[in-house]
Each structure stands twice: as structure tokens, then as C-alpha cells.
Input
Amino acid sequence: MSPSAGPPVPSPTSHRWGLLRHLYVQVVLAIIAGVVIGHFWPETGEALKPLGDGFIKLVKMVIAPVIFLTIAIGIAGTRELGSIGRVTTKAFGYFLVVSTLALIIGLIVANLVHPGAGMNINPATLDAGAVAAYSDRAHESSITDFLLDIIPTTLLSAFTDGSILQVLMVAVLFGLGLSMVGKPAEPVRDMLERIALVVFKLVGIIMRAAPIGAFGAIAFTIGKYGLDSLANLGVLIATFYVTSLLFVLVVLGAIGLLNGFSILRLIRYLRAELLLVLGTSSSEAALPSLIEKMERAGCAKSVVGIVVPTGYSFNLDGTNIYMTLAVLFIAQATNVPLSLGDQIVLLLVAMISSKGAAGITGAGFITLAATLSIMDTVPVAGLALILGVDRFMSECRSLTNFIGNAVATIVVARWEGALDHAKLDEVLSAPPAKEAGGYRARG
Output
């Protein structure tokens, strides 16, 4: 090359290949491919279900150690143990207010839109057996059982039973123990930090398989239920999606503005995780990445470690919107009149049942079954009306829940004075990061 020659200009081809290195681009392409396979070759799409299930199992495999290490290390480094109680109190206060607001919004929208009006379904003609398994599991879930289930059988069983709240409890107690022991426990804390480096590197490796998981999960959904099933209950699905979108942009957007950040920039920052949640229909698939990104955004480790795991069980904004909207849809479809008093009772019951069924796999539909079982006004058999399209609404529930937990983490960190505003502005304002796979291990 001659001395006068300028720097090499990247060709359009190299630019396109560069885009393919981003996780969110890979997941988008995988979702499109999954939809095509599921629609044109449904049997093949259904057969790809193990790809999605396998990826989610891989992620769940590392969730327990990620939560334990994040919380234990964060609490062990906290000089003021009283701050843990303050963070927990502020987090639950936020969860209660925002989750209740989500329930109210679902009620209001259902009364305005009337998505089930005119269907005139006779409850006696519905297949109650199709939802029997869900209603049975709902009956098994009570507040007392839920609270007792937080306590693991042994210290180690919390890591094998798959309960986020059990791991959370063990991590908090272990972190408190490390903090109270003090200097003699520093070698243990150092060891945990070194293990954390390895675990988060492992998470980074697993996330490289995200496009495969998203491809398999969406191909199965479209292959099994078909795009045609969306049209049958399109009004309900469209109402739920629009309501959730408005909740994110208006309610969570306003909360963001009051706390000094833009919800749209936060969504862009979390775009890879949101696409992963969309493809797998599971917010748990992106839990480890959310923890890492919230810390990178300037939220203190101790706050992230408490708010994110508890939010996955108690801050279910999307699920709450779905619950009240779905109950009124079933009531309207089966011509069951609900007075204002009945709807207030529904609101109170949903506030309780949404916590009692927290942490259960498929919690959205099971919580809905629990609410109908307790109310005894709207027929539980009405669940059969939405069973076929529940899978399509679960993506929206998971996305809304995920964004809600990200917002909650930043807000609580700010309230606690544990938010680096400069760091938050930097990551939310930065152009798309050029990271292979969109995820990095801690350094």
C-alpha cells in the first residue's frame, strides 16, 4: 500500500457479517426462521421443541449459582447490614404499588374494550377436563404453602429444587454470615468472587446458544398452535398486547422519567435479552444476563441481588394485567355479569393469588386458575377458551415482567442511593455495543 493511501474502507459484505456477530441479530433471524418452519412444516416445527426446552434447562442450570454468588458477595461487602432490610422494604413497597396498578389497568381496559362480548358461550359446553390439571395445581397453592416452600429442606437442596426464593434465602443468610464474621471470612469471599468469574464466563458460553433455543421454541409454538389460532381470539390477544405496550411506555416510562432515565433507551440496552425472552417465552432465560447488565448500568451489586430475584416472583406486571383482563374476558364471553363490587373482590383476590402462585412454572395460567377457583363467580371451565392461545400471550407477559423488573431495580437502587447515575447515562446513551454474542463475562 502506498503511503498516501487512506485507511481501508470496510466493504458492505464485511459490515453485514459484523452485524451477524450481535446476539440480538442472531435471535431475530432465528425467530423468523422458526416462524417459517412452524408455519409451512408444522410437524417439523413441533419436533424442534427439544431445542427450546434444552436451552431453557441450560439457563436454569446456572440461575441458582448466579443468584447465590451475586447476593452473597454483595451482602458480604455491605458494611451496613441495616441497608439490606431497607432495600427489601423499598422493593416490596414498589412491587405492591406497581403490581396493583397493573391489575387495575387490566380491569379498566377490559371494561372499555369488552373483548369477550358477543361470544355467548355456554359454560356447560366447555371442556373442563382440558384445564383440570391447571386448576388442580392452583388448589394446591396457598399462601401458607408458598411461605413454607421458601425454606429449603437442607442448605444444599435449595440449589437442586429449582426454587429461586429458596436460593435467595440461603444466599441472604450466607452473605449475612460472611459479613458478621468479618476479616476471618475474607478468604471465603475472595473464593466466591473467583467462582463468580467462572460462572459468568459459563453464562456467556450458554448465551451463544440463545438463537438455537429461540428457533426451536418459536418453531414449536407456531407448528403446534398455528398462526390461524391467533385469529379466533384476536381481539383478546391484541387488547392484551396493546395494554401491555401502553403500560410499559406510559406507566413504566413515567416512572423512568421521574427517576432520571428513558424507558426507550433502557429497552434498547436490553434488546438482546428481550428478543431472547420473546423467542423462548420465558423471562428466566434472560435472568443471569439481567443481573449482569443491571450491575453494568450502575446499580449496586447488593441491590441487584435482592431486587431482581424477588421481582421474578413478586413483580409480575405483565401477569397481573393478563389476570384481570382474562377474567373479565371469560365473564363477558360466558355472559356472567360482574358488578363493581365483584370486580373489587376480583382485584383483592388477584393481589393475593398472584403472590401465592409466584415461582410456579407456567405461573400466569395457574394463577388465573387460582383466582377463578377462589372467586367462584366466573366458571373455571372458561379457561378452556384461552388455553389454545395462552402460549401466544405468554411472550407478552414475560416481556412486560422482564422490563418491569429492570425498571424496579434502577428505581430501588436510586432510592437507596446505590445508583451510579453517570454510569447509567453512559450505558443507556452508548451506541450498540460491539460484543460477540451480546454478553460478556465479568472482568
The domain at 22-430 is CATH 1.10.3860.10 (Proton glutamate symport protein).
